[in-house]
């Protein structure tokens, strides 16, 4: 980034941080968020937070500072989400593929993750304020013991919150998630309770001794459906994915939430780096989603009305 452009960016940040401007922006945000709550609000939004390192390089600051500014952007976006009524936010924090990077870079990312997970739960009571619980989803055995200890402590601090959820995918890929789900299904299928002996009652044969729902054995392959896999994903108890947003101008999902994406999931690629992603870039996406959702509901209502009218005409004749 040229020095003049970087200077104008610093001037803009300084201007926006002045008390009078902050006061005006705050009340404008509150007004817009309250207006949003009157309409349809997505219940599950996911973010691929891309661009922290590029932001640091272009701004001539340390990489760690770029990650810090990315964390500040995340905290602000989480607040907008939970205020607006979004119940579940899922973020892509670390891909399993990132373990292929140089060891010193991986270790640095692990240290940053430890700090940010602790900050998320300790500073500013953001999670408690909105009743959000922290969940870390992914192949956790790949992580170092010290990182796992921080994760356990952070999730323990917020487990009492029941109103909202923050899913942190770390370390994660969608292919690994799907593979894990298939393994669980196969394990439950092959360990399902054997047919009861004649001396047992029918009621006792309806569930396994472990208390888990019995899944048909592998010979009954047709009984394994898409819903079976969905029920074994990391996000099984979350609402369907409504919006997935990626910053930095890259137009791919990078093995994130591939199973959760459905025909009505809105996929948005933005040409801005994550630390620059703010409420003014996020609100138009929420508004656009609400408009499309109302339009979709109207179309479904019209189709339903046509079907009902046809049924009534058939009954007359």
UniProtKB/TrEMBL annotation:
Gene3D superfamilies: Decaprenyl diphosphate synthase-like
Matches recorded under PANTHER family: DEHYDRODOLICHYL DIPHOSPHATE SYNTHASE COMPLEX SUBUNIT DHDDS (PTHR10291:SF43), DEHYDRODOLICHYL DIPHOSPHATE SYNTHASE FAMILY MEMBER (PTHR10291)
Location of region: Disordered: 192-214
Pfam families: Prenyltransf (PF01255)
Domain of life (superkingdom): Eukaryota
Classification via NCBIfam families: uppS
SUPFAM superfamilies associated with the record: Undecaprenyl diphosphate synthase (SSF64005)
Record InterPro entries: UPP_synth-like, UPP_synth-like_CS, UPP_synth-like_sf
Family: Belongs to the UPP synthase family.
Record EC number: 2.5.1.-
HAMAP family tied to this protein: ISPT
Name recorded for this polypeptide: Alkyl transferase
Keyword set includes Ligase: no
Keywords: Transferase
Example GO molecular function: ditrans,polycis-polyprenyl diphosphate synthase [(2E,6E)-farnesyl diphosphate specific] activity
Record field: compositional bias (Low complexity): 199-210
């Amino acid at each position: 980034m040229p020095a003049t452009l970087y200077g104008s960016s610093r001037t803009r940040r300084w201007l926006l941080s002045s008390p009078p401007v902050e006061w005006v922006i705050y009340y404008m945000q509150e007004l817009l968020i309250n207006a949003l709550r009157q309409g349809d609000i997505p219940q599950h939004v996911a973010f691929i937070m891309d661009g922290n390192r590029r932001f640091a390089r272009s701004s001539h600051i340390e990489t760690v500072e770029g990650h810090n500014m990315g964390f500040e952007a995340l905290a602000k976006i989480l607040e907008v989400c939970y205020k607006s009524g979004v119940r579940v936010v899922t973020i892509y924090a670390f891909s399993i593929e990132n373990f292929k990077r140089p060891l010193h870079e991986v270790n640095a990312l692990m240290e940053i993750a430890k700090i940010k997970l602790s900050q998320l739960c300790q500073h500013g009571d953001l999670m408690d304020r909105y009743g959000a619980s922290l969940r870390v989803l992914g192949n956790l055995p790949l992580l170092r013991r010290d990182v796992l200890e921080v994760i356990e402590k952070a999730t323990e601090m917020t487990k009492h919150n029941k109103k909202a959820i923050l899913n942190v995918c770390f370390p994660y890929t969608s292919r690994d998630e799907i593979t894990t789900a298939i393994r669980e299904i196969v394990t439950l299928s092959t360990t399902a309770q054997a047919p009861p002996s004649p001396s047992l009652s029918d009621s006792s044969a309806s569930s396994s001794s472990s208390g888990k729902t019995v899944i048909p054995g592998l010979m009954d392959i047709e009984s394994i459906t898409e819903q079976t896999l969905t029920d074994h994903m990391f996000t099984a108890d979350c609402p369907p994915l409504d919006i997935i947003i990626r910053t930095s101008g890259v137009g791919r999902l990078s093995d994130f939430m591939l199973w959760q994406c459905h025909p009505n999931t809105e996929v948005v690629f933005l040409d801005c780096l994550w630390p620059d992603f703010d409420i003014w870039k996020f609100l138009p996406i929420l508004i656009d989603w609400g408009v499309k959702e109302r339009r979709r509901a109207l179309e479904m209502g019209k189709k339903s009305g046509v079907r009902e009218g046809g049924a009534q005409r058939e009954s007359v004749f």
